[in-house]
Amino acid sequence: MPRFFIEQVVPADAEVLTLGADDTHHACQVLRLKQGDEIEVCDDHHTLHRCVIRDLPKRQEKLTVQIIERQLSDSEPPYEIILYQALPKGDKMTTVIRMAVELGVTQIVPVLAERSVSRPTEKKLENRRQRWQNVAEAAAKQCGRARVPQVLSLMTVAESLTYLDDIRLEGKSGSRQLVDGPPVGEDILTFIPYEGEDAVSLHDYLNPHPRPNQIAFFVGPEGGFSAAEIDQFMSAGLSTVSLGPRILRTETAAAAVLSMLSYHYELT
Ligand code: SAM
Question: Engineered SS bond to 225: which of 131, 194, 212, 220, CB 3.0-4.6 Å?
Answer without folding.
Answer: 220
